[in-house]
Write a structure and sequence with these properties.
With 296 residues, the protein is an alpha/beta fold. The chain has ten helices and eight strands. Strands 1, 2, 3, 4, 5, 6, 7 and 8 form an eight-stranded mixed beta sheet that branches. The protein is globular.
């Protein structure tokens, strides 16, 4: 186990203090909004699709598991059905994760609910259905979990960016009705969507997703251009220089999707977790939580 030097520990304290003040000053609430309930971890654990390595992705079973383990955030993907319902599923179509067929955008919620979303992962999860965003929020409320955040990825087809046009409004309506505006991170690869969401609701927290074969040349400028609160790149684009530049600019980083312990350790050694709001997105939140616990 590697212990941080005194200098690193001091930087950690200073970084956390600075970031908390910045978020509170700009939005009234942010990463440390639940500090009165639990001392925040230096590194936030984001359960990717609820914990896709442990339960069928983007199902209530996965989100339930992520909460039980103690994740700091539940990541999920959102689409809009033909009848305007916001549902949780990664793909545009049903084939990969369910026993159904067709495009989410061409089907009603009733039609989507006919198909099994758990059996392909394991027979033990047969009977799981695609949840709506409202159902996920209801699950969190019923569990009594008052600290966990939801990472809401607004999914757009590559050939139809920005469609449907009222995607952000529909999501925001649900968040306002359920009282969850201040408990989400809205994320997207379609960066104008982040600006739209922030314009509709200035208090909402956003994260800029980045992937592809080539990393953005200037992540700091990109985050600032779209007024995002943090940067969430593919793990393969994370270098010491990127982490240092973001932290100097006061921007947290939360790479995806990090499933191996060796890669988790590499990111921690790069300084991810020394700045408030830093996180790691993983299909196996249990592995990351065990690693963090052992490092205390």
């Amino acid at each position: 186990m590697r212990f941080p030097s005194l200098r690193l520990a001091c930087l950690r304290v200073i970084g956390i203090s600075f970031c908390i003040m910045g978020v509170l000053g700009s939005q009234g609430i942010g990463v440390a909004a639940t500090a009165t309930e639990r001392t925040p971890r230096p590194l936030e654990v984001h359960a990717h699709r609820g914990g896709a390595g442990l339960a069928p992705e983007n199902t209530l079973a996965a989100f339930r598991k992520g909460m039980e383990l103690g994740a700091d955030a539940l990541e999920m993907d959102l689409h809009v059905t033909r009848d305007g319902e916001v549902v949780v599923i990664h793909d545009e179509t049903l084939e990969r994760t369910t026993n159904g067929m067709g495009s989410v955008a061409d089907l009603t919620l009733e039609e989507l609910k006919r198909w099994d979303a758990g059996g392909k992962f394991s027979p033990a999860f047969r009977g799981e259905r695609l949840p709506t965003l409202r159902e996920v929020i209801a699950l969190v409320k019923a569990a009594g979990n008052t600290r966990i955040r939801l990472d809401l990825e607004l999914k757009y087809a590559p050939d139809r960016p920005g469609q449907p046009e009222d995607f952000e409004q529909r999501v925001l309506e649900i968040l306002r009705e359920t009282g969850f505006v201040l408990r989400v991170n809205v994320i997207s690869f379609h960066h104008p969507s982040l600006a739209t969401m922030r314009a509709l609701e200035p208090r909402i927290r956003t994260g800029l997703l980045a992937g592809g074969r080539q990393a953005p040349q200037d992540p700091v400028a990109l985050v600032r251009r779209y007024h995002a609160d943090y940067y969430s790149p593919s793990v393969r684009h994370v270098t010491p220089e990127v982490v240092a530049a973001l932290h100097r600019a006061g921007i947290p980083i939360a790479p995806w999707t990090v499933n191996e312990e060796t890669e988790m350790r590499r990111l921690i050694d790069l300084g991810i977790g020394t700045f408030a709001g830093d996180g790691i997105v993983t299909d196996y939140p249990d592995r990351l939580l065990t690693l963090l616990k052992a490092s205390r």
